[in-house]
Every structure is written in C-alpha cells, then in structure tokens.
C-alpha cells in the first residue's frame, strides 16, 4: 500500500517537471517547442492524477496540499 504522502511528493515533482517543460518550450526551436508542449500537458495530467490519489489516501486534504506544494517548491528549477 502506497501512502498518500508519497503520492503528494510525486505530484509535486510532476508539477515541477511541467513548469520546466513550459519554460523550455518558450526558448527552443519549433520542433522541440512542440515536444515540450506535449510534455507539459502529460506532466500536468500525471500531476493531477497523483494529487487526486494523495487527497484520497492522506488523512487530511491540507496534508496532501502542503506536501505537494513543498515537493514542487523544493524540486523547482530556477532559470537564469
């Protein structure tokens, strides 16, 4: 059985990956922009799936939300 916190961490990581894909899609050549755009939608879909599972398996919705947000913040990439 997977805990809700693990689902929340994965959701946060997927959210950070989606953010990175969005940043890259604005700075690359057209074929890579399309690829990054597709990756953006895929990462968002996976993120929402895992966040929904985290809400279902955590003891409270606040715990799932805070864990997802913290995971996203810690794993976010800063582009200079």
Helix-strand sequence: HHH
Q: What is the residue-averaged pLDDT?
A: 92
Proportion of beta-strand residues: under 5%
Largest sheet: none
The shape is elongated
- What number of domains? 1
Structural class: mainly alpha
Taking Cα atoms only, what radius of gyration do you get, to the nearest Å?
Answer: 14 Å
Helical content (DSSP H or I, runs of 4+)? over 70%
Number of strands: 0
Distance between the termini: 40 Å
The low-confidence runs, each spanning 5 or more residues with pLDDT under 50, are: none
Total of DSSP H or I helical runs spanning 4+ residues: 3
Topology:
Blueprint: H1 4-25, H2 30-57, H3 61-75
Keywords: Membrane, Transmembrane, Transmembrane helix
InterPro entries: TMEM42
Transmembrane segments: 32-51
Description of the structure:
This protein has one domain (4-75). The N and C termini lie far apart (40 Å). It is mainly alpha-helical and 80 residues long. The chain is built from 3 helices and no strands. The longest helix is centred in the middle third of the chain and has 28 residues, at 30-57. Helix 1 runs antiparallel to helix 2 (30-57) and helix 2 runs antiparallel to helix 3. The radius of gyration is 14 Å and the shape is elongated.
């Amino acid at each position: 059985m997977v805990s809700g916190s693990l689902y929340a961490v994965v959701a946060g990581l997927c959210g950070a990956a989606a953010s990175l894909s969005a940043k890259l899609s604005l700075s690359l050549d057209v074929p890579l922009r399309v690829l990054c755009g597709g990756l953006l939608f895929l990462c968002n879909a996976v993120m929402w799936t895992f966040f929904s599972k985290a809400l279902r398996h955590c003891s409270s919705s606040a715990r799932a939300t805070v864990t997802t947000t913290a995971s996203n913040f810690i794993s976010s990439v800063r582009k200079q």
